[in-house]
Amino acid sequence: MQRRLLVAGNWKMHGDKAFTTQFIADFVQEFGGEQRSFDALICTPAPYLSHASDAVSAQSAGIAIGAQNVSPHEKGAYTGEISLPMLSDLGCEYVLLGHSERRELYGETDSHVAEKFAACLSAEPSIVPVLCIGESLAEREAGHTENVVERQINAVLTKVGIDGFKGAVIAYEPVWAIGTGKTASPEQAQQVHAFIRGLLAEHDLSIAENIQLLYGGSVKPANAEELFSQKDIDGGLIGGASLQVESFVGICKAAQKLV
Ligand code: 13P
Question: Is 249 within a domain?
Fold first, then answer.
């Protein structure tokens, strides 16, 4: 089964308008006219979503735009929050949910994440949820990796059922590999990806076969090809290396080679 690779940048709280414009222009220089065999996505800080989607349209850059968080509520008295209809209005097609930084620093629980996931599916138009999961170093060392990712997925499964995963994306990001320069080995990552796909397959084989499972955690041009060539790894969610267009493009080139 050949799934399309997705290379997604998570800019976290970095960048500004000028950086966004330049990044998209430089990306187009590299990949503009070329037939692409992978999908590209950038998740910019919320204030730049509109600017990024305008720049992508103006330059026919063929990059999807994503947000890094969203409210589960459609509208109302939720000071500081951003709704799904607002994201759609800004040209957003994807949203990251339950990134480990949101879980750790902002107290997002499995059930908050599940609520947001469900809201993505019922929004009009719907937005693709990118469910971020992964274990901490202590959890890995205690041998709990599979229990943790299973718990994180089950919270969403219980809320939306297996059909909710049709067209969704899952990003496995071991917390110990995020921003540390320590990448999971391709074998370690593949093992967890196969486990995740197996969990979904217990409910629906076709959804499990079709879902894009991204790996995140210190992906760079030097390790992308080996990671992405694993059977159950369908691309990456890239933090630090997505902040320089050269390294993001380098990772995209690894994806392009692999078809
Ligand atoms: P790094 O690529 O900087 O390790 O970050 C990964 C990440 O958190 C992407 O969401």
Answer: yes
Mutate to test the pocket of ligand 1, among 178, 183, 215 (most ligand atoms within 8 A of CB): 178
Best residue among 183, 215, 237 to mutate for probing ligand 1's pocket (most ligand atoms within 8 Å of CB) is 237
Residue 33: how many other CB atoms lie within 10 Å? 6
Residue 104 near ligand 1, beta carbon < 6 Å: no
User: Catalytic one among 108, 135, 173, 193?
Assistant: 173
How much is the pLDDT for 202?
Answer: 98
- Specify whether 203 is catalytic: no
Distance of alpha carbon 206 from alpha carbon 106, whole angstroms: 35
Cβ–ligand 1 contact at 129 (below 6 Å): no
Clarify whether 99 is annotated catalytic. Answer: yes
Distance of CA 238 from the midpoint of ligand 1 (Å): 5
Domain CATH for 64: 3.20.20.70
The overall average pLDDT reported for the chain is: 96
Please write the tens of the pLDDT for every residue from 26-79.
999 998 777 899 999 999 999 999 999 999 999 999 999 999 999 999 999 999
What whole-number distance in Å separates Cα of residue 135 and Cα of residue 149?
7
User: According to the model, what pLDDT value does residue 1 have?
Assistant: 63
Range of the domain at 136: 6-258
Domain count, the chain: 1
Residue 138 burial (10 A CB sphere; 0-12, 13-18, 19+): exposed
Nearest to 251 by CA among 19, 18, 16, 31: 31
pTM for this prediction: 0.97
